[in-house]
Amino acid sequence: MNSDNTTALVPHNNVSIAKLSANTIRTKQSWKNHTTHFESAMFDPWYKAITKIHSIISSQTSVFFNSKGVSPVLLPVTTGSISSPMGLGSDSMPVKINLGGVDTYLADSMQFLLEYALRLNDKGVYYLMPTFRGEEQDKRHLNQFYHAESEIIGGLDDVIELAGSYVTFLCDYFLDNEKNLLSLFINDFSHLEKLSSYKSNIPQVKFKEAVNLLENDPRYINTHDSGFKKITNDGEKRLIELFRGPVWLTYFPSLSVPFYQADANENGYSLTADLLMGIGETLGAGERNTYSEDVIENLNVRNVGREEYEWYIRMRQLMPLRTSGFGMGVERFVLWLINHDDIRDCQLLPRVHGENILP
After folding, report:
1. Residues 108, 94: contact at Cβ < 8 Å?
2. What is the mean pLDDT of residues 145-152?
């Protein structure tokens, strides 16, 4: 992992990334000093290369979805209906703001609006936009990160196929066209070659089977107060080791996922999947409840008030639709791509709750 504090070589601005020799760049973690970070980053080849990776992911995301007939949509970043409300199934904290005297939230995901937009464009929709989370940032989490999200008509298998095709498409692009860029960070491409070899047919393991594979080891498995099991981050890493690379973890316990996820035919489990790669969960996918009655029941079971979701219920009453979607954390994909271990090195400018950071 390239996470030491070795002083990076600083090229002149006219020196291209491709002219830097392999493994000449190391993160200085200048984001630790928010006041001076932007000055340091301007002359740091690490951020020159990271910015190039961001640019490629953005442009190739458009190429991929265009090839699938999936359309981009422009959506607001504020919402009154957070997708991970407090209660069972929530794995994140919302960010509340006061806008013009009215309390609202910055989007923790724009999935709900993608579901709405899909009813206006039934060939599928996507966006690449920022997402906001309230928990403290660390090596695995950012307060603000970029999300590539898509919603399509179809079931869980359909969206697993789409999401798997997406990540392998990005992987193949970097392998075929940007080895010089990646060589600034790594000299071993075996993890990319492994993913590419799957041709989007990434191995899958159901949650209950994964628990058995992990032998109920308390390092890897813990139990929620409500009785369902959860796989820890160490457990995710262990599954990646056992499968020798990326793996889909599917059919999570129903109460461990938000109210909008559909239940599977297997009692107590849901039509959900996480793609584990690199540091663990990098992409999450799920099939949504088709009918309003199922949304209402799931809200009640999780003790989540329905006031903010009356429109969401009404949408299903007006136009029931079987849809599925996925969301990929862009910076987590970058972590996997460059085989790095600290996500805070993968954003150009830091954003931390409670601090006014310029620019």
Report:
1. yes
2. 97
